[in-house]
Specification:
- One of its GO terms (biological process) is microtubule-based movement.
- Belongs to the dynein heavy chain family.
- It comes from Larinioides sclopetarius.
- InterPro entries: DHC, Dynein_heavy_tail.
- This is Dynein heavy chain tail domain-containing protein.
- The structure is a single chain.
- By secondary structure, this protein is an all-alpha fold.
- The protein is built from 14 helices and two strands; from the N terminus they run ααααααβαβααααααα.
- α1 (2-19) packs antiparallel against α2, α8 (229-242) crosses α9 (249-256) and α10 (258-280) runs parallel beside α13 (315-351).
- The longest helix is centred in the middle third of the chain and has 40 residues, at 156-195.
- The protein is rod-shaped.
Length: 376
Amino acid sequence: MKVLSVLQNQIFGMTTVIQYSDIDAFDSKVKPEWDRIIRIFFRDVKNFEDQMKQYIGKMFQSTLSWENAYILARSFDKVTVSPSIREFILKSRTDMLKQFIIEISETENQFLAQEREPPLLHAVPETASAILWVRDLLIKISKPMSKIRDFLSMDSKDKEALTRFKKTEKMLAAYKKEKYEAWKVIAHDKLNKFLQTHVLKKFQPQSSKFVNTTRFEEALLYKVNFPTQLEEVSVEAKLLEALGYEIPSFVKNIILQENSFYQQRNKIKLILEELSDSLSDLKREEISTLEIPIENLCSVLDLGRNQIQWESTDIPDFIKKSKQAVDIFRGFVNRIKNIVQEIDKKVKSLSTCDLFQFMKIGDSVPSCEVRKGSMS
């Protein structure tokens, strides 16, 4: 405001010299003096314009961003200024648009350099990372354009900036759409693969403790077969939906059942853990007596390995049968262990018994003193 006050005083001073001059401008006798006043006036005008340009330039610099400076420059269109100042403002405005075009080019080059291998964000799936990356690039140029779009004119540099922006915007938008469409196909395939996976599988150990009990070993190998596809698709679908993308109905329906799948997985896992606890505590001699219960148990679990898939409606019934089979097997194990413990007690009891009753030696053999007395 202080600078404006100084400039206003300068304008008043320049006009006052002419306004209150007592020289007759039409008198040829005083023409040299009048010419001198006019020269001083135009010199002051030139100095004023230079100061005004500096002031306007500082105003542009203080706006923090070129787009705000551009809007400020456009506001001078409604103000009557000298041709020199008008030219300065137009040049400044052109420089601002040049800067915007440079930013568009940099954004486009950055995209083209990483288009095939977009940067991965931490803990964000591949497609969502790519879309978020491109979205940030688009925001980088869209935000300033949204501010200046209404102020753009038909000038060549304005047209160039708008054309370059639309080209880059279209390219980035097409990339996002391409990634999204590809994700829909991938998500559908992943979920189909998950649904068609059997709920159990056997993990082959590197070494085996039990060499001669093959079926027993198999009972130890059953594990929950729960691929990561469901979680991968679910995480990405939720991110994409938050970004405004429509999730296909098939994908959405499966994700709505996500908690149910996890609950079923946890129930099966708990049953197998109970089975593992029972099996790991068995001794070799106990295993041989459990061949038939183990066979019956494995025949039930094999349903989960060969028939029951995650898309099956029979999973609850399979869980129920597996639980019953494991409980029955654990009952056999407990009975066997009770029998073994009882046998151990009997054996220990027998080991402490005196099976043969011998006469005490002390009752029939004379002492050394008696023997010595008789000899004397």
